[in-house]
Specification:
Length: 414
Amino acid sequence: MRGTLVVMPSALPEGESVPRDGSLPATATRAVGARGFGVYVHVPFCASRCGYCDFNTYTAAELGGGASRESYADTVLAELALASRVLGDSPPPRVDTVFVGGGTPTLLAADDLARILGGIDRTWGLAPDAEVTTEANPESVSPESLKALRAAGYTRISLGMQSAAPGVLAVLDRKHSAGRATAAALEARDAGFDHVNLDLIYGTPGESAEDFTASLDQVVAAGVDHVSAYALIVEDGTRLAARMRRGELPFPSDDVAADRYLAAEAALGAAGFSWYEVSNWARTPAARCRHNLLYWTGADWWGLGPGAHSHVGGVRWWNVKHPTAYAQRLAAGASPGLAREVLQPDETHMEDVMLRLRLASGLPLEVLDDAGRAGAERALADGLLSGPEYAAGRAVLTLRGRLLADAVVRDLLP
C-alpha cells in the first residue's frame, strides 16, 4: 500500500530523545485537539513486498521470529494505554478520525482490527460522526471480512488498485488480478461502507496512455466516491530502482506523468469528481478524506505502531521502526518513541505553506511574508495561481499550477 504522512519511508530523521515515559512538554498539551484530533495505526505486515515499496513494512520472512500478527493488536493497545497516560488530564475532546494503514492492515483478523478500534473509543471516545478508515489490498478482503469490519465501526476503506493493466501490475509486483480491485470496491459498498477509495499509480514504465485510460474507466465504473492518483516515485533500495539501474526498465518520464495527471483530471471531472488536494478527488465534500485533511491543516494526531509519526501541540515524534524493537519497548513499560522535535515557528510556517497550497481551498495570502507575496505575484502572472481566488485573498493553484506545485511552493517560501 502507499503510505501516509505519518509513516516515513527509508531512514527516520534525527531528533532529541523521547523521555522513557513518553511525556510531552506542558506547552504541547494545553489545547490538544482544538483543531481536530486523529489516530493513525500502522500495521507493518505484508504478504509480499511490491517492487516500488520502501515503506516500513515486513513480510513473514523479513520479520523472522521476533514479532507476529497474532500478538500485534495487544501491542498496539499497550501503546494506546501509554498514550492515555501521557495525555492524562489533557485528553482530546473526541477522536474525529481513525486511519489504519500499512503495510496491509487487513492481514490482521477483523476481530483484531475491531479490538484496536474499540480500544481507541474506550480511551478517548470516538466522535459520533467519526471517520474510520482502513487500507486494504484487494486480495486481502472478502465479502465476509468487509461485513465484519463494517459491523466493527469502520466507515471508509481505501483499496490499493494501482492499475487495471496486467502488465503494469506485473512491473509493480502487485499480486492481485486486474479486476480484483474494482470487485472489492463493489463488495465494500455491498457491505455498507459509507465511503470507498481506489488508489492509482501512474507513470509506471511500460504503461501506455490506453492502459491508464482503462484504469480510470474501471475506477469510474466501480462507483467509488474517492480516488487518489500518484505519480510513480522510484526510491533507492527498491527492486524497481535496481531494475532501472540495470537498464531493464526506463526511468519514469516527467512529461508522461504530466499527461497522465491531465488525463485523470479530465476523466474524473467528467464523471463528477472534484479535486480537493493535488492527488485526491472526491464526488462530494462528504467523501473527502477527513483524516488526511487533519494532516494537511496542522491538527493533532497520535500515531500508533512501529515507525508511526505523531504530532501534538507542535511536538512531532516518531517510533522505532522494527516491530520487534517496538514490542520490546512497550513490554518494558517504555515509550516506543525513538526521537522527537519541537517545531519552531519558521518550520510550522514552511509546512503550512507546503501542505495547504496543495488544497483546493488554498492558502490565505495574509500568512505570506513580503518575499512570499512577491513569489505569489509571479506565480499569478505565470498562470499558476487562480486570478479570482487571488483577488479574494487566497493562493489557489490552477490546473497548470498543480502540475508545478513544488515549484510554486518554493517561490512562496523564503
